[in-house]
Amino acid sequence: MAVSSSDSSVSVDMESVYHGGKEYHVQTGCGPVSVVVYGDADRDKPALVTYPDLALTHMSCFQGLFLFPEAASLLLHNFCVYHISPPGHEACKSSHRLGAAALCPDDHVPSVEDLADQILELKYRDRVLGLILISPLCKGPSWTEWLYNKFLSNLLYYYGVCGLVKDCLLKRYFSKEVRGGTEVPESDIVQACKRLLDERQSLNVLRFLEAMNGRPDISEGLKRLRCRTLVFVGDESPFHEEALYMISKLDKRYSALVEVQSCGSMVTEEQPHAMLIPLEYFLMGYGFYRPIQLSGSPRSPLSPSCISPELLSPESMGLKLKPIKTRISLNR
User: Fold this and answer.
1) Coil vs helix vs strand at 320
2) SS3 of 130, please?
């Protein structure tokens, strides 16, 4: 997710109402892209831009976070939210069927640079105020990952989003405890994710996977990144070591790491409550805050009367309180 100042206007081909948000299909130099906007009437607010993981939509990747009451009040109160979908990963294409239509086999296969360029046409990087990264990658794929992804690509090509493909993807997203086993049933979020994966077009997932498998190494450029960066990763994520490597490459003055215990890659769905306190302090550094609830859900421990001045140090980004089952590390 990226925190940005107000965006400039963009041309759209069509729009539709989508579960309280509006879906726009924006034409870019690298092809059309779907953007679901929440807070369309508040375009003067800063933009919060999200981008999902492989085979996911904003519903399956960020719904848990945005449905968590305290996080929702923090994010929706301060931002106009733009959920950008990779090509072929739109949440809906018609009122009769969930999931995007299959991409044409003759269409250009986008690289990760192409996917990034689509976002650059909507947001300019000099307007980016901060980055919130979930299980990020900055190195090119190792031989092990490359071969594994090739195996997954072959499954997608020949068998579609079959049971084995879904199992591989679920291992990418969730911890073993949530996925369940022979004695422990899988959780509701895993079952919901399986149903959403059933709506994915195998060719669309295959193209996104091929783009990720051909990603370049951007490690050396991270030291030049000057916007504040908050990195979340589950300690059971297959990309846990990648996140630790990335935080070591970022400027320690502007970055912090939150390791969520007993969690996989998709912290936003598996343990969104563990993100609240780091998010509040991170956004507080920009002057954003969550309105105090006089009734309804309990007040956050970060209500103004509960904040100690020493916890607001900009050097540490204020990340000194530990969310539930979470270890917070500052980059040193």
Assistant:
1) coil
2) strand
CB 282 within 8 A of CB 313: no
Q: Are β-strands 80-85 and 31-38 bridged in parallel, bridged antiparallel, or unpaired?
A: antiparallel
Q: Determine the residue type at 309.
A: P
- Residue spans of beta strands (DSSP E) within 101-215: 128-134
Domain boundaries, the chain: 2-228+235-241
Burial of 86 (C-beta count, 10 Å sphere; 0-12/13-18/19+):
buried
Angle subtended by helix axes 143-159 and 202-213, to nearest 10: 160
Structure tokens at 273: 């409550």
What is the fold, at CATH topology level, of the domain defined by 2-228+235-241? Rossmann fold (3.40.50)
Phi, psi of 122 (to 5 degrees): -100, -35
Pairing mode, strands 128-134 and 228-234: parallel
Output the pLDDT for position 86.
Answer: 84
The answer to whether 311 touches 320, Cβ cutoff 8 Å, is yes
Interhelix angle for 163-173 vs 143-159, to 10°? 140
What is the per-residue pLDDT across 71-111, written as a single tens digit (0 to 9) for each? 988 998 999 999 998 887 776 544 334 455 556 666 667 78
Between helices 58-67 and 69-78, what is the axis angle to 10°? 100
For residue 81, list its beta bridge partners.
Answer: 38, 48
Q: What is the pLDDT of residue 26?
A: 84
